[in-house]
Amino acid sequence: MQPIVAEEIKDFDTSLDRLWARRDLVVVAAGALICFRSIYRRALQIGALERFRYAAVRAEDYVLGAAEEAIRDAVSDAAHLPGARTVVIYLSCLDILTRPDFADIERTLSAETGCIVRCFFRGPLAKADSIRHETVEELIASLPPEDSVVTAPAQLPPPMSDTAGVLDFLQEDGAAQVLVTPSGCRNALVRMDIMSERSDVYALIPQPEDYIFGIEETAAAETGALAATGAYRTIHLLSSPVPAFMAMETTPVLQAAEEHGCRACASPTDGFHDAVYGTAEATLRLVQEASNGWLEEGRTVFILGYSPLLFGDIAQLNPPTAFLTACGCNVRIVGRDALTERPALCWLVSAVGVSAAAWLQREYGVPVVHSLPLGDIGWAGWRAEITAALDLPLEGASVEQTVEDVRTDKVLIITDPIAAAAISCLLRTYGFFNIHSAAYAWDEETAALYRQAAETDVLVFRTAADLQSAWDVADAVVADPALVPAMGEKYLVPLPSGLLSGRDAAGEGSGVLGANFTSALERFLKQ
Prior knowledge:
The protein is an alpha/beta fold.
């Protein structure tokens, strides 16, 4: 079992660095979402985003043998970028496992596109392969001299995966998170998607033969050994594309932990979905499992939809939590705290909690508040909703919504719909009425969550083309700066999110209620 901790990678001498040293070469990474994050991070660090493209292959494509078509389409698109002369397909573990005809891909796509198309085998499965594969030095030496420069906008940044999102969400004391993943998937966490203070995350160390005969035996042995140390009461098992594709049986792994007195459970992650959907599923599962042992309802409030990367600095919750406590409530953050009592109220802080909130409302009639106390007007509205839901008297004067001179600026807000609603409410008090909201969804499951969380129309986009017209007509955009390389320069009110920017966007002062965004918003309103 290998501990996983955050690291800053500063060695610029990897295979990717050597490939991107050529300005006429585009790297196309194929595979699941989790495969792209560390590669994207590398391209961002060395200024090569315009020469990086990803081919998102669905889990069912690998099962049905349709992955090759997705790869061919992505390579064809990359070959038509201005200045592209060589396209290198940076193969994922699943590409190597499923074995499409790599020689035919290289031959036919080179002929069809007029570019040199080559496959590069990398990662633990390439090293375990019985066939010798070309090194990056050999690949580069075989290419003609560089004679052009790729000029193109970047793709949208690949968001954090479901595996990383659930890992970030699970923060309870006495629990260990165990990743069943090849080393490449771990790199995305190490380099981008794990907070620096985490010390409860481990990864299995599979043997090469495990990818042929099954990973269960190794997983059970290593998980049992971790449980036997007595350091943890609970072990959460998180999967990734390779074990998910291999249909790894989790029962013997969980039993190995339980034999040593650990409670064990497996989260339904596979690395193909994004963190919003994956964490929403984990939130729902956690609440449903807890409901089996709930005490009678008291005055407990569940905070649904919080995680450090998806929502930001936990200090944002301190003033609202203090208010709830003063109202006589016991506040429980789902994912961090024990859920021993049926809630009297759910406070939904992001779309991540939508599924669990709907289930609690449907099964137990639990009321749901889904506003955020942003600014004086937001705080007054939130406090009124909370006291009404708890059937408490509202003390203190209410804040009247006064509107400044009407502004004609077009404002586009790109973030979680609940945060967007809070920002929009505040902007309207300053005279902004031409406001539109958008949210970035990797797949339809996340798009459905955003639509369910939104009180008004929201543009759910999955590609830059989906967003471009709204971006172009906006006078100002509230969004993560990570979108700019794909969308173009724009007056930006920065609201970084761990969903796109990883741990760089989290930490002290982060989040829509955090000090950093408050300062950025004040600067915008004073202009």
